[in-house]
């Protein structure tokens, strides 16, 4: 066990996401402005040419009939003014760099390599687990999370502190909440799944966590590993030196790395709440996992499954939901079988269900760090697809799914990242994947 509890590091100079602490003051909400002062004391670092505070009010779309959900038309329910960063600058205050760029002026490009977790050396594993422990126990300086027991009433919204890892876990939970339209919840729609935004949303979220850990530790070489689950007969990384074994109740072995972790936002997955346990009332449940015990998910996807999914050349197809056929996204996400025509659980979804416990409760699944290894591999498959079809932002389909249209800003990130703009080679975001195993890639 790592004795990191007491030392409070902060995530300095943070980048992409919400809610930036300086934008949760009364004044920020009153003026609907999220243009924090950068080091040079100007909003969005404008005096240093990093960006500008932009008023987006005039660009509001009009096709949304009656907007009730705070996330629609992101982030304009909260802010009319947000930073627009120039060139290689990024971050909610333009104080950070675009992915893959480093240095005070963000002019230094760097490529990191994401490796299979079993490829890591002893020292690299130690580094991974201590950074994750730090991320789980370090109060995030730049971001807070939103909590309420009643989404209908804005005056009940509260912004509370969370650790860096919990901010990440919360982002997934927040993006997945059912959409509230005209006072009615639509349980089958959300902003990160069941539509064309799925692979890009998760790519951006992993990039966020990776970058925040780099900033927190000062280690620019840190890369999130992946778990290549193709053809696995059991969860071979569920050992105590890696992700941890579990007992019959699913509780992780006390001698494994994540046994002390608790799940933020657990137990309150009703639609009208946003994470009411995010404050210090530690009623949160421990992580649990039960790999291979769910009767309808006894096997993980095979090499052939992945090859077949990669044969689907359209990123997504109408009706852009769980019913889409011949859709790479729907097969990768796993509502569609790798054959492209049978609607059944497979691929990404199958892994969540196979692992059981926290991972099988999708809204809070991001609490289990095996989530990031899983999604890093899903991203590797996405990267294979991008390379095979030479995909680009133009490959992102026109559609009318709320929050998943090509030009929608991805929820809940700052500054705006458009859904279509994530369809680029990973090297443009500063990372690539190792070749693992003798099966080609
Ligand atoms: C942005 O980064 C690239 C490297 O990717 C560098 O060549 C370029 O000069 C940078 N642009 C600015 C404006 O600093
Ligand atoms: C919203 O709901 C109300 C009452 O349920 C209904 O009368 C109204 O037509 C709905 N508006 C829209 C735009 O769907
Ligand atoms: C996976 O299966 C192998 C071979 O059957 C076995 O040796 C290993 O202990 C199992 N690992 C886990 C984590 O169950
Ligand atoms: C997908 O969308 C179509 C057309 O709107 C609808 O008929 C179908 O029920 C939807 N499927 C799911 C699983 O939501």
TrEMBL record:
Protein name (database record): Tyrosinase copper-binding domain-containing protein
Record GO biological process: melanin biosynthetic process; pigmentation
Naturally occurring in which organism (per UniProt): Leptobrachium leishanense
Alphabetic keyword roster: Melanin biosynthesis, Metal-binding, Signal
InterPro entries to which the protein is assigned, alphabetical: Di-copper_centre_dom_sf (IPR008922), Tyrosinase/Hemocyanin (IPR050316), Tyrosinase_Cu-bd (IPR002227)
Lineage: Eukaryota, Metazoa, Chordata, Craniata, Vertebrata
Localisation per UniProt entry: Melanosome membrane
Signal peptide (from-to): 1-17
Pfam family membership, one: Tyrosinase
Gene Ontology CC entries for this record: melanosome membrane
Domain Tyrosinase copper-binding: 368-379
Membrane topology, as annotated: Single-pass type I membrane protein
Sequence similarity: Belongs to the tyrosinase family.
Main location: membrane
């Amino acid at each position: 066990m790592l004795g990191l509890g007491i030392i409070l590091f902060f995530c300095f100079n943070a980048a992409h996401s919400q809610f930036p602490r300086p934008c949760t003051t009364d004044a920020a909400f009153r003026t609907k402005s999220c243009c924090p002062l950068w080091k040079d004391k100007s909003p969005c670092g404008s005096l240093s040419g990093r960006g500008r505070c932009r008023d987006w009010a005039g660009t509001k779309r009009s096709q949304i009939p009656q907007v009730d959900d705070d996330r629609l038309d992101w982030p304009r329910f909260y802010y009319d003014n947000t930073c627009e960063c120039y060139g290689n600058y990024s971050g909610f205050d333009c104080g950070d760099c675009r992915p893959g760029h480093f240095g005070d002026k963000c002019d230094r490009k760097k490529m990191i390599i994401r490796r299979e977790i079993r490829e890591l050396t002893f020292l690299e594993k130690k580094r991974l687990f201590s950074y994750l422990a730090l991320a789980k126990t370090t109060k995030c300086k730049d971001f807070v999370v939103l909590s309420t027991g009643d989404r209908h009433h804005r005056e009940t919204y509260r912004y509370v502190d969370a650790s860096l890892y919990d901010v990440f876990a919360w982002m997934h939970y927040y993006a997945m909440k059912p959409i509230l339209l005209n006072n009615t919840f639509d349980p089958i729609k959300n902003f990160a799944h069941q539509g064309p935004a799925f692979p890009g949303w998760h790519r951006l979220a992993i990039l966020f966590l990776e970058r925040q850990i780099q900033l927190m530790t000062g280690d620019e070489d840190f890369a999130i590993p992946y778990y290549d689950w193709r053809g696995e007969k059991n969860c071979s990384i569920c050992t105590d030196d890696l992700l941890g074994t579990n007992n019959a109740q699913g509780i992780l072995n006390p001698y494994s790395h994540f046994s002390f972790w608790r799940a933020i936002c657990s137990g309150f997955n009703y639609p009208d709440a946003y994470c009411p346990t995010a404050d210090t009332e530690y009623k949160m449940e421990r992580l649990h996992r039960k790999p291979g015990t769910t009767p309808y998910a006894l096997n993980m996807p095979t090499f052939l499954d992945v090859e077949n999914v990669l044969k689907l050349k359209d990123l997504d197809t109408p009706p852009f939901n769980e019913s889409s056929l011949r859709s790479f996204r729907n097969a990768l996400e796993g509502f569609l079988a790798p054959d492209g025509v049978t609607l059944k659980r497979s691929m990404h979804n199958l892994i969540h269900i196979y692992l059981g416990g926290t991972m099988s409760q999708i809204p809070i699944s991001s609490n289990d760090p095996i989530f990031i290894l899983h999604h890093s591999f899903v991203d590797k498959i996405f990267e294979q697809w991008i390379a095979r079809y030479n995909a680009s932002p133009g490959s992102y389909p026109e559609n009318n799914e709320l929050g998943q249209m090509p030009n929608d800003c991805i929820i809940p990130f700052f500054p705006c990242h458009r859904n279509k703009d994530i369809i680029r080679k990973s090297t443009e975001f500063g990372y690539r994947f190792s070749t693992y195993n003798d099966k080609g890639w």
